[in-house]
Each structure stands twice: as C-alpha cells, then as structure tokens.
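Q: Convert this sequence to structure tokens.
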Amino acid sequence: MAKSPPTTKLAQAVGPVPPNGLAQTAAFLAAIGREVRKNRAKRGMTRRQLAQASETSERYLAQIESGAGNPSVSVLRAIAQALDLPASALLPESGTRTAELGPLVDLLAQVPEQELPALAKELAARVARAGGTDRGERIALVGLRGAGKSTLGRMLAQHLDWPFIELDRRVAEEYGASVPDLIEMAGMATFRRHERDALDRVVAGHESAIITTAGGIVSNPETYALLLRRTHTVWIKARPDEHMSRVMAQGDFRPMAQNRAAMADLVAILEARRADYARAEAELDTSGDAVEQSFAKLLRIVKPFMREQRP
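A:
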C-alpha cells in the first residue's frame, strides 16, 4: 500500500488539495505575498504599521508575505484597504482582458524588463500629445526622502524666481493638520485624496512652479499619472546608503525609518518604487556630488523645459 504524502504546513493551511495542485497553490500564495510586500514597500509602511492598519496580527502578516499563510477574503480585503487598493490588486491573476488589450499585454510580456521604463515613457508621451496635455513650465521633483528634492527645489525656484511648492505642506495647510496627524486621524486613503486635490489646484493655479512631492506619491496611480501629464517630472535619486545618511543628518526618519526601519526596508522601498520613478521625464543622480554640482546638473536638465531659454 502506498504511503500518504507527509502533511506540510501549506497543506494544513489550505486544506485538502489534489497532489498535482499543491505546487500551483504554493506558487499562488507566494505571488500574493510578493504583491503585499511590494505594495507595502511602495508606501514606505513597516509590517507593524500595515498590521495595525488592517487589524491583522503582525505574525500572520509575516506568514502571508512569506507565502506560508492562506488569507481569507476578508483578511485580504482588510490588507488591501489599508494599502488603499482594491482587493483584486493583490491577486496575481486579477483582471480580465478586453479584445483590444489582450494583444498589447501579450506583446509587453515579450519586452525585456529593463526596456519597459523607456517604453512607458514613449507611451506616456504619445498619450500626452494626443490629449494636448500642457505641462507649462511646471517642474516636479520626485524620489525618496534624502535624495535632495527639497534642497534642490528651493535653489531652483530661487534661481528662476518661480513659486516653490511642497505638496505635503500644501495638503497640511489646506487640511489644517500635519500630514502624520492627518494620516493617523483619517487614514492613508484620505491623505491620498487630499494630495490629489492639492495637486489639481497647484496645476490649475500655476503656469510656472517648482513642485516637490512625497516619495509615496507613486503609490496612487491616478495622482502620479496626473503629475506626469501636467508637469515636467524629474526623478532625484541617490544610493541607498546616501538616502539613509542624509535623512539621519536631518534628524528626521520619515517615511522609512520612523520606526527604526533597517537598511533592508529602505532598499525594499526603493525597489518597489523604482519602475514608477523611472517613468519621470528625466533623472538626476545626486550620489557623491556636492549640492552645487547637483544643482548645476539639474539646471542643464530643466533648461529644455523652459519656454524662454534662460542662461
């Protein structure tokens, strides 16, 4: 008589599964775990923060992220809500294709991953031309905290004599509370709605401006798409160790180290956001440069975005 296969933790978690389906189930749960980890990192949230926001135990969340947990629909929905996502976004096989979209998805699957950011830029440029999008002389600096956005943004605004607008500060002024207090009182989803509304008003009210954003703006596809359409966006970046050292020098650990997140968490955040940041119109790496050197490079980058060629 053949012996029954040993009972694994996965089998205990998912219940009776045909032997040939166990590997597929394991791959499916691992993919869910990757989606949860990726979206948590993109928002700069620690596991503890997500556990608290979703009212899920931190231990169980760790199991889900590792692929060892089998979350119920209600648990997955709570995690998705805490991430300001539809539950379907955490499923690796979510969504259905239309007849027109299907061939495009198949073609994209054949494109090498390293070529996708450039292809996304070309597509965004085509959509912008088709829609008659006007970016004016609005220049937005995106990237993780510590890259130099605020410092370079202020210098550029002063040099050009344009308004300098920190989107987070604008949200705080309009809401009447600091961003951390707003998130604590009303939740991340509410903050993201205020961020989108503030960006709408900034774009409508300023033909020329230097705008800096929170690093997590990329976690809201609609807001980030608006930023890319209506501004000349520059990704300000640096090596992970420089990000961390600059934030520590400022005495402010937001957004990735308010709870003493390790370097591994910072790297995870950068990796989760890299593809979105790469959709920017231009990039500036400030690693190893003095502020003056980075500013000179930024001036050369933004010169083509100006309607009047300033010296």
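The first helix runs from residue 9 to 14.
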